[in-house]
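Reopening this ticket.

The earlier resolution said the output was attached, but the attachment link was broken on my side. Pasting everything inline this time so it's all in one place.
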Amino acid sequence: MHCHASALRKADAWNCLRLPKTGRALCENAMKNKELKRLSRTELLELLLLERKRNNALEQELRKAREQLEDRTLRVECAGTLAEAAMNINMLFEAADAAAAQYLENIRHRSEAAEQEAAQLLEQTHRQCEAMLQQARREAVLAGAEAGMQAKPLPKDGTP
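Inline output:
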């Protein structure tokens, strides 16, 4: 009868381990209080081995869950990092566009200033040429009067 009772206790212990968590907890508490004291050393070692296997399986599940969590966290971080990188690139392009626009504006101002300066220089050169031409005509008239002959004034287009 002792073997039969031992086999029942062993079967009860194994069945406790197969129950859902809440049922298992109640069953294990009952076992702890009454049955564990009656089990033999071999039966206790078998239960310990079974618990160890269950513990290893739970540790493996936990490891997988942590890896999945890290993977999701990494994806979220990467998504955040990618979004930040895209935002930084957009800001870089905006700064580059602003710098290019400012450069083109400076070039346009310099070009306008150079054109104005060239127009002023051209106008000044025309005035100087006109003044030199009039001076040359006056000197030619004076030189001809001194020589006893009267020189005709040259037309404005410079032909004799």
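Reporter confirms the inline version is readable. The chain has a mean pLDDT of 77. The helical segments are 2-18, 21-35, 41-146.
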